[in-house]
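Sequence in, structure out.
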Amino acid sequence: WVPGLSRRFRITLVEALPAILPSFDARLSRYAERVFHRNGIALRTSTRVKQVTERTIVIEGADGIAAEMPYGLLVWSAGIRAREFAHTLRAKVPDAQTSGRGLLIDDFLRVKGATDIWALGDCTVSKNAPLAQVASQQGRWLARALNEMGRDASVADPFRQIEARAKPFEYVSNGSLAYIGSEKAIAQLPLLNTSVAIGGPLTSIFWKAYCLWELSSVRSSLSVATDWAKRAMFGRTMTVD
């Protein structure tokens, strides 16, 4: 958009894992990398950030050799961490809670080592990934299980009897979407017993439609859709001094 400035800066993406977007199909990960390369974004995969100083970051590649990389603006995305309450609770039963990431739970969402606590979502550690889809499905599953137990007054120990009244929680993926810039997106969608991996400009339309659907009100959806339409017709509003 501003060619006079494009030669004065560069964007580098540092990723500790061997590939970006590892939760997607490998073909989609490679497609996203090609899009980034075409947009002039340099990728440093299998590279860990060891230290951040005022003007540089210290990185370490797969060869174990450390190097300094200067930066002007650093954008840090480091994932999630459970709130301190979860770690305080975990410390009460250290023999059962052996993960430092959060609360270990079983297939019935029961906190291991406790007798009357259920947990779900990002504060937990289980076989499921810490995704919003997982937390949403866990919430619905637990609500149904607790309601079913509440209707049966003969249950003396609901924490244990839940096994007899509910099947273990099983996460069912509804698919994954990610916007990767330049009006392109990638999607991995379940189909029968397999999944479909797609990417490109048409996928970004699907991504936008899903985003509008998920917004909390019609007013919000119309506002976002209007902004997208104005940007498509007139470009972004930019000021260059």
